[in-house]
């Protein structure tokens, strides 16, 4: 039987062994006998986490089974990163000095007179903003 956490309004938290089929049910407080509902305890680090970090973690969890899309740019960047990692002085060091240069495709940006940008070679169907 697993141990569940319960909270009494007068005496605070207490722990009880409860059968799994009765996990959501209230149990009596060991000191006063009042029926107490189970609570879920959350680590303080989760409570203090910024909303942006929580959103990033949720997004990563949702996308963890998404397929990795291989593009010409991503393959070229991976090759450059591997060459950098194997270069003299960086073999297996894991340093973060790698600064990829933009590929030719990413550099093709046309600035219009009104200040908007157009990416003619990448996604002609995409509306720029």
TrEMBL record:
Putative regulatory protein FmdB zinc ribbon domain ranges (all copies): 1-41
Pfam families on file: Zn_ribbon_8
Superkingdom classification of source: Bacteria
Name the record gives this protein: Zinc ribbon domain-containing protein
Protein's organism: Marinomonas sargassi
């Amino acid at each position: 039987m697993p141990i569940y956490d319960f909270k009494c309004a007068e005496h605070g938290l207490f722990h009880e062994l409860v059968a799994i089929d009765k996990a959501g049910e209230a149990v009596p407080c060991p000191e006063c006998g009042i029926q107490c509902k189970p609570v879920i305890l959350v680590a303080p680090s989760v409570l203090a986490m910024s909303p942006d970090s929580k959103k990033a973690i949720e997004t990563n969890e949702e996308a963890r089974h998404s397929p990795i899309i291989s593009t010409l740019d991503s393959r070229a960047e991976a090759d450059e990163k591997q060459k950098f990692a194997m270069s003299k002085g960086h073999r297996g060091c894991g340093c973060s000095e790698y600064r990829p240069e933009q590929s030719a495709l990413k550099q093709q940006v046309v600035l219009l007179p009104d200040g908007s940008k157009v990416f003619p070679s990448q996604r002609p169907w995409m509306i720029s903003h």
